[in-house]
Amino acid sequence: MADVRRVISILVENESSVLSRVSGLFAGRGYNIETLTVAPIPDSNRSRITIVTKGSKRVIEQITKQLHKLIPVYKVVEHEEMVEKEMVLAKFPIEENLADIQALCQAYNGGIANVGANMIIGMVTDEPCRVKHFLEATRRYNPLEIVRGGVVAIER
Amino acid sequence: MKMNGARMVCEALIAEGVKTVFGYPGGAIMNVYDEIYKQNGFEHILNRHEQASVHAADGYARATGEVGVAMVTSGPGFTNAVTGLATAYMDSIPLVVISGQVPLSLIGTDGFQEIDAVGISRPCTKHNYLVRELKELPRILKEAFHIARTGRPGPVLVDIPKDITAEFGEFNYPKDVNIPSYKPTTKGNNRQIEKAIEAILKSKKPLLYIGGGVVLSNASNLVRKLAKMGGIPAVETLMARGVMGDSNPLLQGMLGMHGNYSSNMAMSETDLVISLGARFDDRVTGKLSEFAKYADIIHVDIDPANISKLVMVDYPIVGDISIVLEKIIKGIEDKINSERYSDWRTVLNRYNEIHPLTYQDSNDVLKPQWVIERVGELLGKDAVITSDVGQHQMWSAQHYPFDRPRQWINSGGLGTMGFGFPSALGAKKGCPDKTVINFTGDGSILMNVQELVTASEYKIPVINIILNNHFLGMVRQWQSFFYDNRFSETDLSYQPNFKALAEACGGLGYDVTTKEEFDSALKDAIEKDKVTFINVAINRFENVLPMVPAGGALYNMILADKEEKK
């Protein structure tokens, strides 16, 4: 069976060991994690973990079922219709063409986040496939460092 | 009422109806042991190794259906318990294991006997807790018992820092549990159940595939009822031995790697598998693409993750087997009769006549199968049988005439050598009126042999029958079959004097080489009612047969030894 990419949101009790339960499940059962983000849900004692994974349909089904079995997991959503965004911070040498970098970042829903004596930091927030294009485009500006935020997603 | 955390632990155990706790004290759990000293609500059994404590609690749980309880200290106490947790986890056995932990302020500092118990046990428990505040303790203990025994049962660890057991607070043991994120599905989807009934009525060759879940759900009577009502043949997994009762003509036997011919052929030829609480383990299925190749599959399981995990299922039903079976029986009662599948049964009976489960008995040397069948003749349904892991385990599963569920206790999923003896202690504590026999091997018995002392001290008279071939027999068998007789590190010719060893620890020992000696040793041991080793010298090169080589199709069985074929 061909591998498919899936974005899975997991609503969990906000307790200290919950992330290790989730990530340990993936490691222990040999499931793949491409990105993982986690943050508390406002005004609740729950957190939302968003995981991008790849696997055959059967593996994806097992992942959601196994996640459901974890006691502190309230809900597992395997997204079909969703808005998906990822954030990237990229640091460039100040010697590069700053106008180009700014234009590039703006083209991907971002801009310049910070400028220092030796570097400029660009920020973009976009769909994962567009983020990939952005990262390809940045290469010619010799980025010093790139930080990706991982995917967050919300059901439409 | 105000009390310290240690007392709360004891009060909670008493409130849960716990009669026996198996454990071993140490620094971090001392506060709790101090309260154990002061109370009379439950008995504490001091095993001589923490692994044995957890196995004993496990054996107690398997024999009685109640939650088994073990208690250990932090660090090595806990790590010794891990094999016990994993064993229970793999077989879905309800346990609550309480471990001490270093004080909260020392956690994370590599304190003396500190280890991350919650981290280590996460993959081998159903759930685990590190108690961070005294006020959480009663709720956590209540939840631990609830989680252990509901849904798909399993072991739960509660790790309690030492300062929390010393701290005083108000104790109100909760009456109810409310875990919003934990609501097991028990009832089964009615539409799916209707479809399953239609499938059974349409089928010409249905087969009940019975797993350990039936035992856990206490659904044996319902399974027997459904089988009888429709004259539906049945096969049992290793974990389900006893569910149908071996005198039941519908039972083909155990299936899988060491299943008998008619069971494996039934699975290979059936057109409808009715899987009840079984999980399509690789030791059962053999080559997956050939498993039940011609069949649609109904799968009833309380754990949705078991459904379509390995084999795609046509009629998935998530629910408690007892509840689902009651609905199926109600729905099918008027539409089915016991003559319906008689052609199919004739085929299977024929298979059983061609290749019955058998062995070559001998007058020169004791055969392990004879020993097991003999115990079956002498004790039958009055015994609880535990076993260790290896050839003797398979022979016991094949040849003992099991009569009821919970009569057969063994480590199926994890395959833990050293499980048999301590689990027998637990089983005997749970069923004091039954004779408890542990079939073991000369390899396995040494893995928890220290329990001789426990058994003697507490007068727990379990009888260990050591089927002694001076080999790690199962590994030796594989070496014979698949490694060209290179017996790498499996020759156990160097042995302790088992008779003297048992006697040194206050038990009885017998060396047995003939049938007469065996009979008199067993009779004597039962009469004297003490912990016993019966060291039985058996044929060194006896193999467990039939055998489906790992990864092979179920219908490709090695049925007899090459020598015997000649």
Please give a handful of descriptors for the protein shown:
heterodimer; A: 156 residues; alpha+beta; Alpha-Beta Plaits; 4-stranded antiparallel beta sheet; elongated; B: Rossmann fold; Rossmann fold; 3 domains; 20 strands; 38% helix
Q: Explain this structure to me?
A:
Chain A has 156 residues and is of the alpha+beta class. Chain A folds into 2 domains: 4-80, Alpha-Beta Plaits (2-Layer Sandwich), CATH 3.30.70; 83-155, Alpha-Beta Plaits. Chain A is built from 4 helices and 8 strands. Chain A has helices spanning 18-28, 57-69, 98-107, 128-138; strands spanning 4-13, 35-40, 46-55, 73-78, 82-93, 111-115, 119-126, 145-155. In chain A, the strands form 2 sheets. Chain A has a 4-stranded antiparallel β-sheet with strand order 2-3-1-4, covered by helices on one side. The mean pLDDT of chain A is 95. Chain B is of the alpha/beta class and 566 residues long. Chain B has 3 domains: 2-170, Rossmann fold (3-Layer(aba) Sandwich), CATH 3.40.50; 190-354, TPP-binding domain (Rossmann fold, 3-Layer(aba) Sandwich), CATH 3.40.50; 368-545, Rossmann fold. Helices cover 38% and strands 17% of the residues of chain B. In chain B, helix 10 (220-230) packs parallel to helix 13. The A-B interface holds A 12-13, 17, 20-21, 24, 28, 58, 61-62, 65-66, 68-69, 71-74 and B 118-119, 122-123, 126-127, 130, 147, 179-182, 303-305, 308-309.
Chart the SSEs and their pairings.
The complex is a heterodimer of chains A (156) and B (566).
Chain A: E1 4-13, H1 18-28, E2 35-40, E3 46-55, H2 57-69, E4 73-78, E5 82-93, H3 98-107, E6 111-115, E7 119-126, H4 128-138, E8 145-155
Antiparallel strand pairs in A: 1-3, 1-4, 2-3, 5-7, 5-8, 6-7
Chain B: E1 2-4, H1 5-15, E2 20-23, H2 30-38, E3 43-46, H3 50-64, E4 68-72, H4 76-90, E5 95-101, H5 117-121, E6 127-130, H6 137-149, E7 155-161, H7 162-166, E8 168-170, H8 190-202, E9 206-210, H9 212-216, H10 220-230, E10 234-236, E11 251-254, H11 261-269, E12 272-276, H12 282-285, E13 296-301, E14 315-318, H13 321-332, H14 342-354, H15 368-379, E15 383-387, H16 391-399, E16 408-409, H17 420-430, E17 435-441, H18 451-457, E18 463-468, H19 473-482, H20 498-504, E19 508-512, H21 515-528, E20 532-537, H22 562-565
Helix pairs in contact in B: 1-2, 1-6, 3-4, 3-17, 8-13, 10-13, 11-14, 15-16
